[in-house]
Design a protein that fits this description.
The structure holds 2 protein chains of 2 kinds.
Chain A (H helix, E strand, L loop, with lengths): L8 E5 L4 E6 L7 E8 L6 E6 L4 E2 L4 E4 L5 E6 L8 E9 L12 E6 L1
Parallel strand pairs in A: 1-9
Antiparallel strand pairs in A: 2-7, 3-4, 3-8, 5-6, 6-7, 8-9
Chain B lengths: L4 E3 L2 E4 L5 E6 L6 E8 L3 E9 L2 E4 L8 E7 L2 E6 L8 E8 L11 E2 L3 E5 L1
Parallel strand pairs in B: 2-11
Antiparallel strand pairs in B: 1-3, 3-8, 4-5, 4-9, 5-6, 7-8, 9-10, 9-11
Classes of the chains: A mainly beta, B mainly beta.
Chain lengths: 111, 117
C-alpha cells in the first residue's frame, strides 16, 4: 500500500469548513483513498473513500487531484464533535480491506 | 445492526497472567481483523481472518499472542503470559467481501483497554 503524508495537527473554528490534506504521491492506479477518523477512546470510524472522482456523503466531501497524488477531506461545517484524529489511507480494494494507519492529523475544532 | 462487539471494555491484570479478549463481528462479514494501538506505535494490524481462517498473522508480536476464530460470529485474542509492554487498546474490525474480489470498508469495535501491571 502507498504511503501517505498528513500534517500532524490542524485547528478549525466551529461552523467553518475543515480542509484536511493528504499527500499520496506514490499511489498506484488501482489504489483507493480512504478516510477514517478516531474520536478519543473510540474505534476508528469510516468517513468516505474514492478512486479518482470527487465523492460526497452525509459526513464529508473528498476531493482527489487529477493526478491522484493528493486529496483533501472537507468537513463543510465543523462542530466540536468533529475533534478527532483523521487518517488518510490508500489501499487496493482487493486486499481484504487490510489497512495501514499512519499518524493521521489531529483536528481540533474550537468554539 | 449492533456493530462490532468487543469484551471486556477494560481489563487490568498482573504480569504473567493469561488475558483473553473477545470479538463478535458484524453478522455476515467475511473478514475479521485484530489491531493494537499504543502511543508509541500507533494502530498496528496484528492478524486477520477470512471465513474463519487466519490469512496473515505477520503482525503478531511474538508467540505469547494467539488468535482464533472458531466460528463466523466469534474470535478471541489471547496473550499468555502477559507483560506490561502489552498494555494497549486492542481493536477488532470486520468487513464484507463484495463481488469481483473487492472488499468493503472496515468497521471497528469500541476496543478493549488492557493494562498489565
Amino acid at each position: 500500500d502507498a504511503k501517505t503524508t498528513q500534517p500532524p495537527s490542524m485547528d478549525c473554528a466551529e461552523g467553518r469548513a475543515a480542509n484536511l490534506p493528504c499527500n499520496h504521491s506514490t499511489i498506484s492506479g488501482n489504489e483507493y483513498v480512504y478516510w477514517y477518523r478516531q474520536i478519543h477512546s473510540q474505534g476508528p470510524q469510516y468517513i468516505i473513500h474514492g478512486l479518482k472522482n470527487n465523492e460526497t456523503n452525509e459526513m464529508a466531501s473528498l476531493i482527489i487531484t487529477e493526478d491522484r497524488k493528493s486529496s483533501t477531506l472537507i468537513l463543510p461545517h465543523a462542530t466540536l464533535r468533529d475533534t478527532a484524529v483523521y487518517y488518510c489511507i490508500v489501499r487496493v480494494n482487493t486486499n481484504a480491506g487490510k489497512s495501514t494507519f499512519g499518524d493521521g492529523t489531529t483536528l481540533t475544532v474550537k468554539p | 445492526d449492533a456493530g462490532v462487539i468487543q469484551s471486556p471494555r477494560h481489563e487490568v491484570t498482573e504480569m504473567g497472567q493469561e488475558v483473553t479478549l473477545r470479538c463478535k463481528p458484524i453478522s455476515g462479514h467475511d473478514y475479521l481483523f485484530w489491531y493494537r494501538q499504543t502511543m508509541m506505535r500507533g494502530l498496528e494490524l496484528l492478524i486477520y481472518f477470512n471465513n474463519n481462517v487466519p490469512i496473515d498473522d505477520s503482525g503478531m508480536p511474538e508467540d505469547r499472542f494467539s488468535a482464533k476464530m472458531p466460528n463466523a460470529s466469534f474470535s478471541t485474542l489471547k496473550i499468555q503470559p502477559s507483560e506490561p509492554r502489552d498494555s494497549a487498546v486492542y481493536f477488532c474490525a470486520s468487513s464484507l467481501a463484495l463481488a469481483g474480489g473487492y472488499t468493503d470498508t472496515q468497521y471497528f469495535g469500541p476496543g478493549t483497554r488492557l493494562t498489565v501491571l
